[in-house]
## 1
Amino acid sequence: MAHTQDEILAGLAELVAEETGIPAGDVQLEKSFTDDLDIDSLSMMTIVVNAQDKFDVEIPDEAVGGLKTVKDAVDYISNAESAKA
Amino acid sequence: MTGSVDRQIAVTGMGATTPLGGDVKTTWEAALAGSSGARALEAAWLERYPTLPVEFACRLAQPVTEKLTLQEIKRLDPSGQYALISAREAWADAGAPEVEPERLAVCMASGIGGLYTTLQAYDTLNEKGARRVLPLTVPMLMPNGPAAAIGLELGARAGVHTPVSACASGAEAIAQGADLIRRGLADVVVAGGTEGCIHPVTIAAFGAMQALSKRNDDITRASRPYDVDRNGFVMGEGSGTVVLESMAHAKARGATIHGILAGVGVTSDGYHISAPEPEGKGAARAIRAALADGDLAPSDVQHLNAHATSTPVGDVAEAKAIRLALGDATDGVAISATKSMTGHLLGAAGALEAIFTLLAVRDGIAPPTTNLDNQDPNITLDVVTREPRKLPSGDRVAVNNAFGFGGHNVALAFRSAS
C-alpha cells in the first residue's frame, strides 16, 4: 500500500537519523542533503539502500544524483510507489 | 640488565574491552579474582545449528551499546567497535597526548577481520539482491577498518597499519609500533589488536580443526591450559590497546609511564600452516630475540604470560620453547595462562595479554591460571594457579608470548618503569 507524503518523510527522517545521528525533526522537506544536513555520498547511498528496503521501491544509481533535497527523495519514493500500484 | 634508554618505549596508556570487563580496571580485577568470561551462545544459533560442536564462548562482558552511539555501531564491524572502545580508553588513559599528527601512528591488528559484515552482506545479497548490499560493506569488512577508524578519530598521519598474523596479530601490532618509534617515524603509536568473530561459521570451522574445547556441560572450566584434561581453546572476543611513546616524548610531557616495552622478538616457524613446531624452536627464538633486543638476560625475567591456549599440542610446544629460551632460569619464572579466564581473543589476544603482562610488572603481581587441577607432566613450568602471586620487588621484567596459525611467533619483553 502506498504511503502518504508525511509517512514517507517520517520514514526517511528515521533512516537519516539512524545513519547520521541528525535528529529526525531536522529532516525537513526543503533541506538539502549535502548543504544543510551535511550528509556525505557514502551515507547518502546507505540511506538510499535502506529506503529501497523500507519502502520496497527501486532507486536506480542514476536517480540518486537528482535527489538534492529531502522533498526530492520523498517525491521520488512517492512516485515510485504510485507507479507500482 | 642495562638497557639503552633510546631504544626503550614508554607505555603510557592502556584500554580494553574483554570477556572479563568493559575496561582495563575491571578486566584486571576479574583476572586477579580468577573469573571466567565463558557464556552460552545465542539460543537462536543453537536452535538453528543443532550440530554445532561447541555451545559457548567468551563473550564481551559489557555490551557495545553502553559505549558507542547507534551511528558508530552501524558504521563499524564488531571488530571495529571493540577497537574503538579500547583505543578511546587507552588514549584517555595516556592523557590524550598532544602530538603532531604527522608524528602519531596507529597499529591495530585483527586476525580475522570483518567477518560479521561479510556474512551479513552475503545474506542480504542472497535474500534481497545486489541493490540491498550496503555501501559501507567494504570499509567495514576490510581488516584495516578498525585501524582506520582510530586513525580518523585521532587524526593520525604518521601511518595507519594492520599487521595480520592470526593469533599473534595483537602482539605483532605492538612490536610494529615499537619499530615505528625506534626508526624515528613516530613519537606516539596507538597499538593493539581486536577481534569480533564469534559466529556459527567460526565455531564450526575451528571445531572442524579439533581446536575447540567441547566441554559444553562445564563451560567456565573448559579453558584449562596445562591441565591434563585440556581439550582445546575457547573462542573469545574483544580488544586491547596500548599507547606507545618514545621515552623522550613521554618524559617531556610528564606522562605517567605504566611500564617499558624493552624488547620485541618476531620469528616464524617455517614448519606447518597450523601446528607449532613441536620443539618450540621458533617460539624460543622469538623470546630470546625479545630479551636480546631489550638487553636483558633470562635471569632477569620474573614472569611470563604464556600464549597457552589450552590445546593439547600447543601448550606443550610452548612449554618447551620457554625452557629452550630461558634455560635454567625457567624455574624462577612465574607463568600465567590467562586464556583460562578470558578465552582466546585470537587477533586481540596478544594485545590483551601484553596489557596483563604490563600490569603484572607495574603492580608486582602475576594473575592466576584457573582450572589447572592436574598439571600435565610434560609441562615443567612453575605455573601460577588458583591465587595471584606476588612478584619480587625492584626492577621487574616479564615476557608476553603470542603465536599464530601460519607459524607466527611474537614475544614482547616489558620492564617496570624506574
## 2
Amino acid sequence: MSLIIDVQHVTKNYGDKIALSNVEFSLEKGAPVALVGPNGAGKTTLFSLLCGYMQPSSGCISVLGHAPGNSALFGRLSALPQDAQLDPRFSIATQLNFYARLQGMSNKLAKKDTARVLDMVGLIDAANSQPSELSHGMRKRATIAQALLGSPEIVMLDEATAGLDPANAKEIRAIVAEQAGNVNFILSSHDLSELERLCDQVLYLENGQLKQHKTLNIEGDSRFITLRMKQDFPQIIPAILQLQGVSHVNMTQDREYLLTITNDQGSANIEMELLLLLQKNNWSYAQLINGKTLENQLF
Amino acid sequence: MNINLSRLSNIITFEIVRLFKTKRGLLALLAFATIWFIILYYFISTAADIVSSRSFERMAYDLFGALGLSALLDWPVSEYAIYWLVAVYFFPIFALSVCSDQICSDKQRGTLRFITLRSTRAELILGRYLGQLLIVTILILMTSIATAVLASIRDLALLPASLQIGAKLCFELFIVVMPFIALMSLLNTLVNSARLAIVAAMLFFGLGPLIIAVIKHQFGQEFYLNLLFPGGQISSILSQNSVVVSHYALPVIQAVVLLVASNLIMKRASI
C-alpha cells in the first residue's frame, strides 16, 4: 500500500485561536476516508491545508510525496472546498473547460471531459447556463463536476451533499461509490450514515485535535449488532439478554439497542435467533445493522 | 518562481474572454467607446482647426510653451498632439479602474480555490496582470487607430505620418500604464473587493506624497520614495522632445517590483 497523505505534527493558529493542534495521521491508497467532527472542529482548516490554500503554523504535510500547492499535484489532487463558488459571469461549461485546459488538456479534450463530468452530475443540459441561473443544488453539482475533471488520484469533498435534495445526494454518493476504485476520496459530512455507507476509515476531529483515526467495524474479540425498533418495548432488553452469545445490551438512543456478541460458537446464529425472538413477541423492528453505527463508534 | 507558459497563456486568454464575452465586459467596452467617441469627436477632430487658426496659434504657443509642450505643436498631425495630452492622463486612471478586479472577487467568492488547484499563484498573478495589460493595450491601439482615421479623413496624405506617430504613442502609453496595472495587482492581493482596491489606490496617490513630505521633513533627507509612485515620469515625457532611458526604465522597474511584491504576498496568503 502506498502512502497518499502524510500529516506530521500540524498546528494551525488563527491569531490566538488554535484551529488545529498537533494533528498527525497518514492515509494509504484505498477506500474513501471520512473526516468527521462537530462544527468548528477544524475539518475545513485541515482540508484547506491539504489543498495548499493556507500554510500550517507548524508541522509538515505531504500529499502524494509533494508539499500542498506544488505544481506536481495539479490534476492529481482536486477538491470541492466548502462554500467555494464558480464565477457567475461565465457559463459552467466555459469555466470547467478553462480548468481542464489549466490541467493540461487540449481544447478538444477539455470540451469532451467537461461534457463527461457534467453528464456524471446530471448537468449536461445546463452546460451553457450561468451559475446564477441554477438552483443551489445544481451549483453544488457543478462544483463537484470540476473536482472530477481529468483523472485525479485524490478528491477531497467538503460537505459535498449539504444542501442537496435526497435524490441528488444519492446521485453524488453513487458517483463516489462508483469512482472509489480509481480515486481516493476524502469526504467530510455531518451525515454519518452517508459516511458509514461510503467510507471504511474515519478521522475524527474535535476542538482542533485528532481524537480518533480508525477503520470502521473492526472491533477485536467482540462483535456488535445494532437493532432499531419501530416502537418502544420495555421488556426487550431482558429478553435479548437471554439469547446465547449476547453479553451486553445498551440502549444507545430512543428505540435503538447495541448488542455486544461474544465470539464463541453459540453466537453463530445470533441474527436468526434475534429475529425469531422479535417475531415471537410480535415486536416489529425498523433496522438490523451488522456492527456499530458510525455514530456509536465515535460518540 | 514556477511559471508554466501553457497555463500562463490560458489565464491570459481567459482574461480576454472575460472582456469580450461577458455582459459586464461588454458594458465596460461600451462605456469606454462612448467616452472616446466624445473625446475624438469634440476635441481631437477639431484639434487641427484650432491649432492651425492664426488667432489661436499665438495663444497656443504661449500656453503650450509655458508648459514645455511647444514641441507638440510642431507635429505634422495635430490630432495626435491633443490625443497624447488626453491619453497620457486618461489611460493610467482608466487602468486603475478597469484593472481593479484582478483577483479580488475570485478570492471573495472562493473561485480562486478551484484555480489554485491547477495553477501556481505566481502564474495567476502574472497571467491576470498580462491579461489586463493586453486588454488596455488593445484599447490604446483602438483609440490610436481612430485618431489616425480622423486625421486621414482631414487629409489622406497624413496617413503615413499618423501611423508612425500613432505607433510611437501606443508604445509610450503601453509603458506608462504598466506600473498602474501592477499597482492594482498588488492592491488586489491585499484587499477583498474591487471597490476597496480603487479606494486604496486613491489613498495611495492622495496621501502618499503627503507621507513622503512628512518623512522628508522629519529626517531632513531625501529617500527617493517618490520613485514608488507610478506615473512619476509622465510630466517629463509629456513634451516628447527627448528620449531618455530612465523614462522607460522607471515604469518597467516599478511594474516588476510591484509584481514581485504581489507574488510574495500572494504566496503566503490564505485563500
